[in-house]
Amino acid sequence: MAARTLARVVEHGAHLQHVPDLDSLQLLLRVAATGSLGRAAAEHGLSQPAVSARVRAVERLVGVPLVTRGARGSTLTPAGALVVDWARDVLHAASALEAGIASLRREGEQQLRVAASLTVAEHLLPRWLVALAAERPGTAVSLRAVNSEEVAAAVRAGEADLGFVEGPLVPPGLSSRTVARDHLVLVVAPGHPWARRRTPVGAAELAGTRLVQREPSSGTRAALESALRAHGPCAAPLLELSSTSAIRAAAAAGTAPAVLSALSVGDDLALGRLVAVPVHEVDLSRSLRAVWPRGARPGGPARDLLATALGRAGRAAG
Asked: What span, in angstroms and rounded, lies between the C-alpha atoms of 147 and 145?
């Protein structure tokens, strides 16, 4: 999907009068992730005024406000959340193109194709890949960050050597090992009534609440629906978005509650952009798994990446 996105960008580049450059899109994503123009500036080695000017230039190019500045930091407007959501595909595609070009330039280099759910790709894989690079410096890695259903399809089709999923079940036709444990957190904006409630949200109440959620094939959504299945059908989402960052921004803006991985909302909770609401009567823990074709065993760089993930999971558990 990311490759097709970039192909369309290249094919129609002459007509893209309102599309920011890749650096500006990356900067906007960091503002969304950190909730601060200053922190985004520090990460990019820029001054805060320079980042503010860059964001204003992007807003003029797009034609709508994207970031709201306030005493608590910087948050995305609803339009900004959508732009960040769309920009993520383009940046993933650009990363895939960069990885592909690098692999063409290096002869005799081993290649590893990885497909991972967004939670794993954003919060766990970077550390694993750094460790793999230290052990196998000649390995070229290409990463597809998609939902868990698409990860399983890529592994079954031979388009990925190793996959990482976050759904409640092992996908059909694949073998798996648990590489991490995670739990889902119910979060709301500080101004939401649930932020001040003194009793936990019950499972039936949560199932009946319209949330900001990922698409149906997302592992996070599948895990939530599986956990709530015994408490009645889940209400239809109030808003459906295709990335965790967009959901976090929508929840922080007060659109509706959201249920997200604890890995993805730690900074938001620490900085007060989101508030965690206790939930009872339901187990929201889940396993994050590595997957590969049934009847085969990962070899070469895939085997080493799996060993790295399992080793880190073991140290975390200890």
From this structure: 7
